[in-house]
């Protein structure tokens, strides 16, 4: 399973990269706004340090604007993936950009039918938002299982990118379901590694080593 970080914060990206397990980055307009940097500079800074896929979201809501934005972003780097919302005009843009060989990450997916249409339009990634579904009393991970099953039934190449991750159990379940990618906030990446028995065991080993080698 690939691991992406869900942030536009360069310091977080660099720290996650230093762990040696990072395959890519996803951004969105809200995450870029949080950095306080101008959009283009923020994305270009990320592209300078990340060799893997970097998702960059369009803000247009009509086909022509989305395609124009997508082409502009794609020219910034070979690893740019254009993020397009799954609305009617977005569906047309997914098709147009994919046909031009530009990778598309379809965002704001909340239903299996949206995922089916995105795959048919040629998306490289589908991003179902699990946390936001959990927030309204749905089970976000049920959607992941549905999308994995539907794509498996028809052999679609579109990769299932689990988004809006809030906790480590989202990642465990995504891996058990065979999702292709998890995009994870920096804080949750840190939580993936932690186990109290690891810390307790290491403290005991080091204390015993000290005792045995004293003097
Ligand atoms: C995915 O690509 C989105 O940027 C992101 O996962 C949304 O997460 P949120 O629901 O925590 O804002």
TrEMBL record:
- Keyword Cytoplasm set for record: yes
Q: Which InterPro entries match?
A: Aldolase_TIM, TAL/FSA, Transaldolase_3B, Transaldolase_3B/F6P_aldolase, Transaldolase_AS, TSA/FSA_arc/bac
GO-annotated molecular function: aldehyde-lyase activity; transaldolase activity
Q: In which pathway does it act?
A: Carbohydrate degradation; pentose phosphate pathway; D-glyceraldehyde 3-phosphate and beta-D-fructose 6-phosphate from D-ribose 5-phosphate and D-xylulose 5-phosphate (non-oxidative stage): step 2/3
What keywords appear on the UniProt entry?
Answer: Cytoplasm, Pentose shunt, Schiff base, Transferase
Write down the EC number. 2.2.1.2
Localization, per the record, is: Cytoplasm
Q: Which residues form the active site?
A: 83
Any one GO BP annotation for this protein: carbohydrate metabolic process
Q: Name one GO cellular component term.
A: cytoplasm
Q: Which reaction does it catalyse?
A: D-sedoheptulose 7-phosphate + D-glyceraldehyde 3-phosphate = D-erythrose 4-phosphate + beta-D-fructose 6-phosphate
Q: What class of enzyme is it?
A: transferase
Any Pfam family from its record, for instance, is TAL_FSA
Family indicated by similarity: Belongs to the transaldolase family. Type 3B subfamily.
- Xref: HAMAP family: Transaldolase_3b
Explain the purpose of this protein: Transaldolase is important for the balance of metabolites in the pentose-phosphate pathway.
Its name, as the record gives it, is Probable transaldolase
**Source organism of the structure:** Desulfoferula mesophila
Question: What's the name of its gene?
Answer: tal
């Amino acid at each position: 399973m690939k691991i992406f970080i869900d942030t536009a914060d360069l310091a977080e990206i660099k720290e996650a990269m230093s762990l040696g397990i990072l395959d890519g980055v996803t951004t969105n307009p809200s995450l870029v706004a949080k950095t306080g940097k101008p959009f283009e500079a923020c994305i270009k800074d990320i592209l300078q340090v990340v060799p893997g896929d970097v998702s960059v979201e369009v803000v247009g809501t009509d086909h022509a604007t989305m395609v124009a934005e997508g082409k502009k972003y794609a020219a910034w780097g070979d690893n740019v993936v254009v993020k397009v919302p799954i609305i009617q005009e977005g569906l047309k843009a997914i098709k147009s950009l994919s046909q031009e060989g530009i990778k598309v990450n379809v965002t704001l997916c909340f239903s299996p039918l949206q995922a089916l249409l995105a795959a048919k339009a040629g998306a490289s990634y589908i991003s179902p938002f699990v946390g936001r579904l959990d927030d309204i009393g749905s089970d976000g991970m049920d959607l992941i299982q549905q999308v994995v099953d539907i794509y498996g039934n028809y052999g679609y190449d579109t990769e299932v990118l689990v988004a809006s991750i809030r906790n480590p159990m989202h990642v465990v379940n995504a891996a058990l379901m065979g999702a292709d990618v998890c995009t994870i906030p920096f804080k949750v990446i840190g939580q993936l590694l932690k186990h109290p028995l690891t810390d307790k065991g290491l403290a005991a080993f080091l204390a015993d080593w000290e005792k045995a080698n004293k003097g």
